[in-house]
Amino acid sequence: MKKLSLLLPALLLLFATQLLAQGKAVISGKINKPLSDYLELITYPNPLIPEEVKTEVALQGDSFRMEVPLEGAMVAELLHGDEVVQVYLEPGYALELTFNGEKFLKTLKYSGKGANENNYLVAYTNRFDEEEDYQVLPENIKLNEQEFTEFLDYRREDQLKSLEKYAAKSPVSGQFKEYLLAEMEFSYAKDKLSYHPLRQQSLQVALSKPSAGFYTYLNNLDMQRPANRLSPSFVSFLRSYTGYFAQEAGYGEANAQFYKASYEVAAQRLQGQARLMAQAQILKQSILFGHLAYTEQMLQDFTSKSKDAALNAYLAESYSANKSFAIGSPAPDFTLRRISGDTVSLSDFQGQLVYLNFWRSDCGLCQMELPNLQQLIARLKGKKAVVLNVALDTDEAQWRKKVQDRKLQGEQLFAGGAAAELQQRYNLKDVPAYFLIDEKGRFISLKARRPSSPEAVNDMLQHLELRQASLH
Q1: What residue stretches are annotated with the Thioredoxin domain (predicted)?
Q2: Of 185, 267, 305, 404, most Cβ neighbours within 10 A?
Q3: Three-class DSSP category at 438
């Protein structure tokens, strides 16, 4: 009994040590010809929240060591200088790596627990992510539909054979294998789903119609594989998947209900973690680029069903921070001086559709758009619409000369001392910048088309026609 009592503390200590080891991974190593005096590891503890955690460690001579807390398997990014590589981690891994800073990927080698998985990940990246023959762009997108499918089938078969051959000699964990299978499956699915629109965009050809059965593979995808959460290709595929069906239902990306339609596609077609991930991704995009009213509806629905408290809090905070500057929210009012000398406010134009143009008289691209802007104004003559041009110049005399010499039409306003405040309130990074504001002073578009786009005036005329129809 005495021996057991003496042994018990040691057993408890051993057990506690094992638990601690399972909750972290250790990465250490040596660098020949380092590119900087530190390394950085970027992790995403919650794959649904795009908030990265950076772990920076300084080199001690040419060596380093870092500990990474883990709750489960994770794919992280290791950065050194301008070089970056994915690292696969599981609790308990003790990786030792060596590389030449000047030939990062080609010389990167791992040893220790987790080495087999990461050495293969380096080889996989070098081959399937770097070699041009395996890429969709620039050449394989030129293939016809059948040839493109054959290319994807060949690539996937080669990926599977490569993994099987490697694992037969250097065993890898089941979780790692599942992660790579998810990457293979959903990179295939994403590339096939994107084939027709990407071909149209890259080759400047008419959008071709998919043949019967081209998308039947979508019915056979394993959307519930736990390892999908680790796969960047899965997250990217979900965006393409919901967007594709939303567009098939008639909701293009420019449609105010595009994100809402995508959200409903996820609700109707997906289950479990796939639905959660898809809807979270759609909400994040809608908060930044979508219509305020629809975003609010989706957020209420999502948080009423999601049990992920951290994700719910993140989405609510993001929505709160962005709702004052979103499609459907009131455009910030301002009062500025006209070229005639009197003052006018944005709110004075309520009842009219407003095309708001921020520009400067010394901006080259702004000058190039001026003739197109005059044509747009001419096409809107007699309509309940106004083109409001706000110059962010500091030299009023230079602005006046430009307006008068070019005989610029539309409302011409000078920002002067209010320029800095306007730039902040309208989140202006550069000029020209264009906004479309409805008759009630709410944003229709935060990135309206440039005057040189044939669709710029069409967007406005279509809005006016729909509004007129709604009044009857």
Answers
A1: 325-469
A2: 185
A3: coil
Cα separation, 237 vs 191, in Å, equals 8
Nearest to 366 by CA among 438, 451, 445: 451
Beta-carbon contacts of 426 under 8 Å, excluding residues fewer than 6 positions away, are 325, 332, 358, 433, 435
Partners of residue 270 on adjacent β-strands = none
Between CA 315 and CA 400 the distance in angstroms is 46
Give CA–CA dist 29/87, Å, rounded: 14
Question: In 276-432, which ranges are E strands?
Answer: 335-338, 343-345, 353-359, 385-391, 411-414
| Core vs surface per residue 143-152: b (16+ CB within 10 A) or e | bebeebbebb
pLDDT per residue as tens digits for the range 423-458: 999 999 899 999 999 999 999 999 899 999 888 998
d(CA 437, CA 331): 7
Give pTM, 2 decimals: 0.79
Provide the CB-side half-sphere exposure for 225 (13 A, CA): 23
Strand partners, 387: 355
